[in-house]
Amino acid sequence: MLIAFHFIQFEKSVPMSTYLVACLVSDFSMRAAKTVVRPVVDGVGKNTSTEIRIWAREDAIEQVSFAVEVTPIMLEFLEDYFQVPFPLPKLDLVGLPDFASGNLTFFVFLLIFYFYKLYNFSSFRVI
After folding, report:
1. CATH number, domain at 107?
2. Number of domain units in the chain
3. pTM of the model as a whole
4. What's the distance, Cα to Cα, between the start and end of the chain in Å?
């Protein structure tokens, strides 16, 4: 009996602590947000960009529109505030239901739990 293998090769990462690394296997759907592009400054360096993607269950994917809109703005604000560009080419935000530990932050991967961050604006109202 032959066993078929599928190999995935990842790009070399920046140095980081192992507790900042996460891997998720799911059948979630994805919505892409605006890619954050950093231009060359004073002719030094090269253009860099960060692709931003938000993941959620298929039945909750319509509720990620707020994250799609706000995440690139937040990333640009934080880069400007701290004067440090985000060093990686992608950032994934993942909405997970019912997670006991609250929110977790990894270097390139934010786990967001539905109770707090996914919004259904059709039923949203201010009291």
Report:
1. 1.10.390.10
2. 1
3. 0.70
4. 64
